[in-house]
Design goal:
This protein is mainly β and about 625 residues long. About 5% of the residues lie in helices and about 60% in strands. The protein is built from five helices and 36 strands. The strands form six sheets. It has a 22-stranded antiparallel beta barrel. It has a five-stranded mixed sheet with strand order 3-8-9-6-7. A two-stranded antiparallel ribbon has the order 1-2. Strand 10 and strand 11 form a beta hairpin.
């Protein structure tokens, strides 16, 4: 167990020292300073249409390209390290578990440019175990995080929230070359932007990463090591000012190995291979006229995977996963106070391996309305109907409202429902049960937001979520184990955030999250959830040339539940960025500076990171 008071004092001392240096070095500067947070930025994930972040009733967080660079992130998991109420611990050596507000690993939908990503489906290992590590962080424009059930917008799998990774669009001719390395992996990456040539613009990205070998005993870190490659091509064709086409191609190849590791009962896995070949293609048409903005999009994805069995040497399991997704929607501006969006979606999922060769189909219809009532109230009702060929139909409603007392203060309320359809693996694979029902979730939240001036903003949110009919393996049926709808859980909590611009390029951000996440069947707390989480973050950007940036944050937990035990721990982290104009950047940083180690929390001690890039 950590000596939390000592750790806290160490971290606060380091934070004050860095802050002191920043202020001391900047006291004589009175030039115009960069804006550290934007109150009027647009988001698209919450409604599938552009809406000001301060108008959206749901909890939405945006991580910008600048945020990603300043944090020294070398992958998407790094980029989400300080996001509110998100936990991404390593899953006992096989990737990461992703949860929002104490949710289960299958309850968060991850999108790329608003579209689904090829994955393994669900079962004992979920899509979210691997999806974040497979994305290239270097071509990301921003990440939008929607907390709370979002079934009315996205259907199955958005039970606890949505993470939408939005890629940089082609802008002007340029070439970027970069390299990064840290305790866990090394990579080099390339970005080419053609700029606009007549009606066509294109961007090509390539990333070559090699994961380092980490021993199994080191805090249960991932046992996989070796190379991974990512490529993407984004092409825009502007037919005229109101009509355009976009083609997006994405490819990943992983060819890794893992070493034999042991448990208390003896050898658990043998030296083996882990190979993934993932590809996707999407074609999107966007059009608009006087009062209508419409789109049609088709996406195809497939993932092929070879893995040596964990229990049988030289036994390789091969699986293939495919999906088709077609969506059409139209947003009609009925008048100055009413904007209506409606559409439909068709999706087909398939899995093929030595024991399964199945597909499932589902189609959806959805509608939501943005209705302004007077000058202060925005009301957004939404509903979605999904029909699945295995279990039937599901209807997901949502209603949210934002009431603005003034331009700088508002209250928000939102109620939403979500669900997760049983996967092909759960319906027809090992431990299958063809009679499974979908998992269901319900949640509501109430928020108050206040901007006190141009430099300070605060937000307080209360939320409560409940999940029923959760799918889990019923071990009481031994030896004939089977998936059953046997679990239910709930989470309740408070999120508080405050941001303040101190001047001289210096900004502080404070977060406090209280979370009570429970398994209601066993009346025990859920794993990988902290009762209390505190984050103190300081940013400094040189006010004149804006060439130096220091990002430092201290994150501490009390009553963090992991593997049946409660832990209290804090870590101090920092990254220093140096830019030379817009063409060159280098950075260096340390995570967990004071070398905390807790195996059950996947804390393996101090980690380092360095990188550099140039654009020409």
């Amino acid at each position: 167990m950590m000596k939390s008071k000592k750790g806290l004092s160490e971290s606060l001392l380091m934070t004050l020292l860095i802050g002191g240096n920043v202020i001391w070095g900047g006291t004589a500067v009175h030039a115009e300073e960069p804006q550290k947070f934007v109150l009027d930025e647009y988001v698209v994930t919450a409604n599938k249409t552009e809406l000001l972040k301060k108008e959206v009733p749901q909890s939405v967080e945006v991580i910008t390209k600048e945020d990603i660079e300043n944090s020294g992130a070398t992958n998407v998991i790094d980029a989400l390290r300080t996001a509110t109420n998100i936990e991404i611990p390593e899953a006992a050596g096989v990737g990461h578990t992703l949860g929002i507000r104490g949710s289960g690993k299958n309850d968060v939908l991850v999108l790329l440019n608003g579209r689904r990503i090829p994955g393994e489906g669900y079962g004992q290992v979920s899509t979210n175990t691997y999806v974040l590590s497979r994305l290239n962080v270097n071509n990301i424009e921003r990440i939008e995080i929607l907390r709370g059930p979002a079934g009315a917008l996205y259907g199955s799998e958005a039970s606890a929230g949505v993470i939408n990774i939005i890629i940089k669009k082609p802008e002007e001719r340029s070439m970027t070359i970069g390299a990064a390395t840290n305790s866990r992996e090394m990579s080099n990456y390339y970005h080419f932007d053609s700029g606009k040539e007549g009606k066509v613009s294109a961007a090509f990205d390539a990333n070559f990463t090699k994961a380092r070998y980490f021993k199994w005993d080191d805090a249960n870190m991932s046992k996989y090591y070796g190379p991974r490659q990512n490529y993407s091509l984004d092409i825009d064709y502007e037919m005229d000012k109101n009509n355009s086409l976009n083609l997006y191609l994405d490819y990943e190849n992983t060819d890794q190995q893992f070493k034999k590791f042991t448990s208390a009962s003896g050898p658990f896995a043998y030296d083996g291979i882990y190979k993934v070949d993932r590809k996707s293609a999407s074609l999107t048409y966007n059009g608009k006229n006087t009062n209508s903005d419409y789109m049609v999009s088709a996406t195809y994805g497939e993932l092929k995977k070879d893995v040596t069995s964990a229990m049988v040497a030289s036994s390789v399991s091969r699986s293939e996963f495919k999906f088709w997704n077609v969506e059409a929607r139209d947003t009609i501006t009925l008048n100055d106070t009413n904007r209506l969006t409606f559409g439909g979606e068709f999706r087909q999922d398939g899995r093929k391996d030595s024991s399964i060769d199945e597909t499932s189909n589902q189609y959806s219809l959805f509608v939501h309305d943005e209705l302004k009532i007077g000058d202060k109230l925005l009301l957004i009702p939404a509903i979605r109907y999904d029909h699945h060929d295995s279990f039937g139909s599901e209807t997901s409603p949502n209603i949210g409202a934002t009431y603005a007392f003034t331009d700088s203060s508002r209250i928000k309320a939102n109620y939403g429902e979500g669900y997760r359809a049983p996967s092909i693996s759960e319906l027809y694979g090992t431990y299958s049960n063809a009679d499974l029902k979908p998992e269901k979730s319900k949640g509501y939240e109430l928020s108050y937001e206040q901007e006190f001036d141009d430099k300070t903003a605060a937000k307080l949110t209360y939320f409560k979520n409940k999940k029923t009919d959760a799918i889990a393996i019923d071990y009481s049926l031994a030896p004939a184990y089977q998936y059953m709808n046997i679990d239910k859980s709930s989470s309740e909590g408070v999120e508080f955030e405050i941001k303040h611009d101190l001047g001289n390029g210096f900004t502080i951000i404070g977060n406090y999250d209280y979370l009570d996440a429970m398994n209601d069947e066993t009346n025990t707390r859920l794993n990988y959830s902290a009762r209390n989480t505190y984050t103190a973050k300081m940013l400094w950007t040189e006010p004149v040339k804006q060439e130096w940036n220091i990002t430092a944050w201290n994150k501490w937990y009390s009553d963090y539940r992991a593997d049946g035990e409660n832990h209290s721990v804090n870590t101090f982290n920092f990254v220093v960025n140096k830019r030379w104009g817009e063409k060159y950047r280098a950075y260096a940083g340390i995570d967990n500076l004071f070398d905390k180690e807790i195996t059950s929390m996947r804390y393996s001690g101090r980690l380092w990171r360095v990188g550099a890039e140039m654009t020409f």
